[in-house]
Design brief:
The complex is a heterodimer of chains A (307) and B (364). By secondary structure, chain A is an all-alpha fold. Chain A contains 13 helices and no strands. Chain A has a single domain (70-303), classed as Orthogonal Bundle (MetI-like fold), CATH 1.10.3720.10. Chain A is flat. Chain B has 364 residues and is α+β, with helices and mostly antiparallel strands. In chain B, the strands form five sheets. In chain B, strands 6-7-8-3-9-10 form a six-stranded mixed sheet, sandwiched between helices. A five-stranded antiparallel sheet of chain B has the order 13-12-11-14-21. A four-stranded antiparallel sheet of chain B has the order 2-1-4-5, with helices on one face. Chain B starts with a strand and ends in a 10-residue tail after the last strand. The chains are: A mainly alpha (307), B alpha+beta (364). The interface between A and B is medium-sized, with 25 and 32 residues.
């Protein structure tokens, strides 16, 4: 009782209670997220190599960053990732929109189709990669086999070896797997859409295309931006499908940021440099997320209390 | 601006027929109200005129052109929806101008027409807001503005006031009436509210179960209902209807009480005919408190069970032939439940309907 007179210790004061109650979460996050983050940030300023642990204390300042900024391969992988992202998101958006519009028109069997549509999402990306690696294999792949059987091609098309075809094949697998993300979110948007403005637009003189362009599309764009936010994060960290299908080859022609980072970090064991690249690529992800999120907020503004 | 003609119009949903071959001619610049209980086919009829529902059989023409196969955009009509149906992502200005923009009008033409419509409806200050930032009445006004900017052949209103609160509804009702006087155009207006129908219409079309029951001016429909349905649907409080039978010069009710047959309807009925006797609460009044106390009267003593004060008049609840009957007291004094009053029933304005068909005997 005597400490009441002296004043309670600071950790028993009322304003500290929230911090004490939150401390398990705060501590966990610090150990699991913050510390590794700071550690990797630190290593990006060292010449840390996995095979020489003592190099962890080898402070090199901005040399890693200077190196990657002047490294042509890094910039090519960087640009290729952005290209990959742009193509994948756009194609997935258009295909997903098409699927959503079609399914929205169906009155019978809609639930079943919706479930079918989600099947590609249920597989691990690694397995999808293996599946498409088999499909696109130039010797034993079923695609070449089918093309030859149908007489559409007489040679073995090097799907995973040719510079452009390899990129196409990876994109194909990626799009096959994830178009349903767009389809499902856009379908949700179409379900939520009120019918009255569509009819009002018809009476106001719109043909079917104009109704879609001026009424439906603006209404479901927020849903598209949600899908784009999710998918841009997903695609920007693409690694598994690429690694399984081409391993970044042939001759680095399908190298994306994360396959490059993994190669530098683990194969070449230059962890410091790999971490510097990772930080640059995270900036890319943040940029994309921020962009889509601003678009989303802008598009959502009018939807607030509208009936 | 055009007349609209419906000829044997039928609507099926699969095997279910909801509109059974209706005929209706709506004249140039006429304000026609389709009224009826929910499910009577009035909205379906309106949507067929708009082109939002296919016409299963018969023809609809706007102007001189049959529009059965025309999509809504080619019918040159405007529609105001129950839920306003504003475009949520557009400002009020863009909502108003959207139809003109789609019609590829020049920007300065659009701007002028939008400004005119905004002036008529008092939307000037709201032009840059989105629908989410408007109140119900304001949204309703924008919806009407969107209809008038296009200068269409006809306006279609689909229960436009039913989402507004009572006070705003009365106010908007007046505005619609004024708007029609200002912007002379053919109007087809759907409502389930008979007061709206009475106050707005040049002509009322009473519908029930996919049939048109009666077409006529508000006064015609009110004073000369063709059957018991129209009689009970139009007017508030509704008409009193008591079943009985003709017994010589009297109408005899189930409890033995009787009342004289109105003289003007005497040769329309035959002895022994089952009938339904109908009269409006306005015509059953305490002596000295009525509005038409001349002419043929049926005096009676009635016990008041309940009195509802409305200020200028009091609605009296009483019993005739074991049935609850409403009367009115104009220039009222305080009434105590249980009080017995000498009342007059004005037979000149009473109605007789055939007991089997419900049709007014006046029509036989």
């Amino acid at each position: 009782m005597s400490n009441i007179a002296k004043g309670v210790p600071f950790w028993r004061k009322e304003q500290f209670t929230p911090f004490i109650l939150l401390s398990p979460a705060i501590l966990t996050l610090m150990f699991v997220v913050l510390l590794p983050l700071l550690f990797s940030l630190y290593t990006s300023f060292t010449g840390y190599r996995l095979i020489r642990p003592e190099s962890l204390y080898d402070w090199v300042g901005f040399r890693n960053y200077e190196r990657i900024f002047s490294n042509k391969n890094f910039w090519i992988a960087f640009g290729r990732t952005i290209l990959f992202l742009t193509i994948a998101l756009n194609v997935e958006f258009i295909l997903g929109l098409g699927i959503a519009l079609l399914i929205n028109r169906i009155t019978w069997g809609q639930r079943t189709l919706r479930t079918f549509m989600m099947f590609p999402m249920m597989f691990s990306p690694i397995l999808v990669g293996y599946q498409f690696k088999f499909i696109f294999n130039d010797n034993i792949g079923i695609l070449n086999n089918a093309l030859q059987a149908l007489g559409l091609s007489d040679g073995a098309i090097p799907w995973l070896v040719d510079k452009y075809l390899a990129m196409f094949s990876i994109l194909f697998a990626e799009i096959w797997m994830s178009t349903s993300v767009f389809a499902i979110l856009l379908l949700a948007g179409l379900f939520a859409m009120p019918r009255d403005p569509l009819e009002a637009a018809k009476v106001d003189g719109c043909n079917a295309w104009q109704v879609f362009r001026h009424i439906t599309l603006p209404f479901i764009m927020p849903f598209a931006f949600i899908a784009m936010t999710i998918r841009s994060l997903d695609v920007a960290r693409a690694y598994d499908i690429v690694d399984v299908m081409t391993g970044g080859g042939p001759a680095g022609r399908t190298e994306l940021l994360w396959t490059l980072i993994a190669r530098v970090g683990y194969d070449n064991s230059r962890m410091g440099q790999a971490n510097a690249m990772a930080y640059v690529s995270i900036l890319l992800s943040i940029l994309f997320t921020y962009y889509f999120f601003t678009k989303l907020l802008a598009a959502r503004k009018y939807m607030g209390g509208a009936e | 601006m055009a007349e609209i003609a419906l000829h044997n119009v039928v609507k099926n949903y699969g095997k279910l027929e909801v509109v059974h071959g209706i005929n209706l001619n709506i004249e140039h610049n006429e304000f026609v109200v389709l009224v009826g209980p929910s499910g009577c086919g009035k909205s379906t009829t309106l949507r067929m005129i708009a082109g939002l529902e296919e016409i299963s059989d018969g023809t609809i023409s706007i102007g001189s052109e049959i529009v059965n196969e025309l999509p809504p955009r080619k019918r040159n009509i405007s529609m105001v929806f129950q839920n306003y149906a504003l475009y949520p992502h557009m400002s009020v200005r863009d909502n108003l101008g959207f139809g003109l923009k789609i019609a590829k009008q020049a920007p300065d033409v659009i701007e002028e027409r939008v400004r005119e419509a905004a002036d008529v409806l008092g939307l000037g200050d709201l032009m840059d807001r989105t629908p989410a930032e408007l109140s119900g009445g304001q949204r309703q006004r924008v919806a009407m503005g969107r209809a008038i900017v296009r200068n269409p052949q006809a306006f279609l209103f689909d229960e436009p006031l039913s989402n507004l609160d009572a006070k705003l509804r009365v106010q908007m009702r007046t505005e619609i009436k004024k708007l029609h006087q200002k912007v002379k155009t053919t109007v087809v207006y759907v409502t389930h509210d008979q007061v709206e129908a009475m106050t707005l219409a040049d002509r009322i079309v009473v519908m029930k179960d996919g049939y048109i029951e009666q077409v006529g001016s508000p006064m015609e429909v009110f004073n000369h209902p063709v059957n018991t349905f129209v009689a009970s649907f139009i007017g508030s409080p509704p008409m009193n209807l008591i079943p009985g039978a003709i017994d010589g010069d009297n109408i005899r009710f189930s409890d033995g009480a009787h009342i004289s047959v109105p003289t003007r309807l005497k040769d329309k009925v035959r002895n022994g005919q089952e009938i339904i006797f109908g009269f409006r609460p306005d015509d059953l009044t305490p002596v000295g408190h009525g509005i038409n106390e001349s002419g043929q009267q049926a005096p009676m003593k009635l016990v008041i069970t309940l009195a509802e004060l409305l200020g200028t008049e009091t609605i009296l609840y009483t019993q005739i032939a074991g049935q609850e009957i409403l009367g009115k007291m104009f220039d009222p004094r305080d009434i105590h439940p249980g009080e017995e009053l000498n009342m007059n029933l004005s037979l000149d304005k009473a109605h007789l309907f055939d007991g089997a068909t419900g049709k007014s005997v006046r029509l036989d």
